[in-house]
Write a structure and sequence with these properties.
single chain; seven-stranded parallel sheet; 7 strands; globular; alpha/beta
Length: 261
């Protein structure tokens, strides 16, 4: 890759918010290294190259240490100006009805792989005292996720983690931004086996608008961004509502059989 343009890594970039974040980066003149665990990442790269920036794609399992190492190796030592850590998976249904290997994958993708990637790329940023990190959290992290218990727990972790490392890096030239969307129109709910739920079938936010808000917040160095007025209200209410009530409300959204007809 030539090094005369800013360079960004975007994970989970084959579809949804990740692909839209990559489009935002390309539109702003960033060369890109994009990653996902499916062959569709190559088609995404072909599309993004039409903007006129350099795009490399890596198909890797970012739930694993090896997959993250594969992605980092693909930078070929080029300094990363922006890391958009967006890769994540969901899982619906009651905890005890879920297969544990799928539970483990949610934790490994959303937390372990994300942390390892941020640690590796962030260490280089600290050495240079320059960089931007965007972490895709969720307003789901504000509430106990009945019938999405593990997923919501991982997003609560990421929301908290982003604020913590932002404070640790205060005074440096490295910014950390947490993008916290609500339900967004992506492949998420189908892949999480939630198309028989209220939240899976209800109207959702536009992925391009969510990504644009997150990208702009990252470029402005903001600490967090909750996208959409409805989600802002929901997150504010969650901060003053007892956890037991929030869990009961979430059940009405995510329990199998609650789909809107």
């Amino acid at each position: 890759m030539p090094a005369n343009a800013p360079f960004a890594i975007v994970t989970g970039a084959s579809t949804g918010i990740g692909l839209e974040l990559a489009r935002c980066c390309a539109g702003a003149g960033f060369d890109l290294l994009i990653a996902a665990d499916e062959p569709a990442i190559e088609a995404a790269a072909d599309e993004l190259r039409k903007v006129g920036v350099t795009v490399d794609a890596v198909q890797a399992d970012l739930a694993t240490i090896e997959g993250v190492d594969q992605l980092c190796a693909a930078t070929q030592g080029r300094p990363v100006d922006a890391l958009l850590a967006n890769a994540g998976v969901g899982l619906g249904r009651a905890f005890l009805d879920q297969e544990f290997n799928r539970i483990r994958r949610v934790v490994d993708t959303n937390i372990t792989g994300t942390l390892y990637l941020i640690h590796r790329i962030g260490s280089g940023m600290r050495q240079r005292n320059s960089g931007r990190i965007l972490i895709t959290g969720s307003i789901a992290g504000f509430m106990p996720g009945s019938f999405q218990a593990v997923y919501n727990g991982t997003k609560a972790f990421l929301d908290s983690f982003s604020f913590a490392i932002r404070e640790e890096l205060r005074g440096s030239n490295i910014t950390v931004t947490c993008l916290m969307p609500g339900a967004t129109q992506t492949e998420f709910f189908r892949r999480a086996d939630m198309m028989d739920t209220h939240v899976g079938t209800a109207r959702k936010d536009d992925a391009a608008e969510v990504a644009r808000a997150g990208f702009e917040a990252m470029m402005a160095g903001e600490g967090d961004i909750v996208t959409g007025l409805k989600n802002k209200i929901q997150s504010a209410v969650a901060n003053v509502t007892p956890a037991a009530i929030l869990a009961r409300r979430h059940r009405r959204m995510a329990e199998p059989g609650t789909a809107k007809l």
